[in-house]
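All the exercises in this workshop are built on plain-text protein records. The record below serves as our worked example for the rest of this section.
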Amino acid sequence: MLFAVSMTFIDQTIVSIAAPDIVRELGLSASGMQWVVNAYLLSLAAFFALGGRLADLLGPRRVVVVGTLVFVVSSVLCGCVPEGDLAQTWLIVFRATQGLGAALLFPAALAVVVAVFPVDRRGRALALFFGLSGALTAVGPLLGGWLTAWTWRAIFWVNVPVAVVALVLTVLARIPDRRRDESLDVVGAVLIAVGMGLSVLGFQQAASWGWGSVATWVCIVGGLVVLVLFCRYERDRRHPLVNLAVFRDKAFTVDALVLFFAMLAFVPVFFFASVYAQVSLSASPNQAALYLLYFFAGFAIASQWGGRMLDKKGARPPMKIGAVLGAVGFYLWAGKLTDLSMHDQWPYVALAGAGIGFILAPASTDAVNRSIGASYGEVTGITQTVRNYAASVGLAVFGTILTHRMTDNVVSTLTSHGLSSARAHDVADDIAQAVTGNADARQPTGTGAAASTMREVMADVRTDFAEANQWVFYGMAIALAVAFFCALRHPGGRGGTAARDDPPPAG
């Protein structure tokens, strides 16, 4: 099961490191590239609860196999994307089906782990399961940098041998398949998918539609209304898709809120930091991966401390410490972005990673321990849905901020060098929609005034991009600060355990 889920977490961030190469080769827009990253996360969030419920009804082993096959076939198709007008749509569609496969796979794999471990060993097994998820999410960019040096398509193809091993091990393990004779909440599944999709679409498209657009607010408000309707609908169901009763526990609600605000920064930081490294620092994909290694180092060390603190004092202390460290780390990191020096930034990158490391595993594990009669799968389905939805919203909102600030900065730079305001806006829009790395190696060609001006100001444009990213990283610092105030509301203690002698259902 660890082999199976490893693909799903690596793929949350592995695409980020290859983004500039994908944009350059396929001619994607900046918003299109963000959708390539976001489609996976959004699909994973929208269908996670459905995956857990299907594991209940059809048996977890069967759903693990189906989810793995959907995931790996989608991965192969992502790697085989053709060049041309179809490329952007192709990638987004099959990234979304990748997310569907992951949403089927993860809760079913969790149900298998819960079913095969006795009560006295179940907690340790789940701690490893949750700890692995954060570690592999951080490993994604490192693996992506190494594979991109060969071809960016390999970041998708690498899932094939992993999936083969996972399927072979699943067969050899002879996992029992238990089913439940209950109905599937189809209406609930549709409502949560529509609500999440609409709201994230509004945030994502605000960069091109504008915040004053009716369409932007129709999507955002409409999506949130649908999610409210979903919650009201689920309360009256005998067999709901998501058991919302767990939110009666204050500690669980605080855990979910802290995870939401932490995940606004955690997954998006890999995308924005890797593109920043390749654009503003003129780094190669491998160098950008090493840049993110500082973040992972801080994350890995703090995760171990956070786990020990959870065992001794409960989730509240590590969540508070993590939120403070994360807020300070992202704030100081943002202030150093315009120095355009990787060497000067590493302490703050590691500090930001440590903040996230203190939060994720303790908050996730404490949420499971507060499950109040619900199954591990039900609680994990809620927390994972919250995490992935937050990551999708973070990518959409911060991507919109980056595009607007980048456009404004480049317009200012170009007009100061004599280009007309109208022409400067056109050129700035083109740059914002087609950000690529290694600016020194790909100077603009042509003999027109705009091309000549661009060759003169490429160094300034890299600084403009760094300044635009500052707004993003300050936003991440604010998200961690809000997580701190949420953590203050945690009642403390370690909570009970939801383990039972009978294997709990997956959904």
The CA atoms of residues 1 and 109 lie 5 Å apart. The chain has 17 helices and no strands. The chain has a mean pLDDT of 81. The chain has two domains: 2-185+237-406+465-487, 186-236.
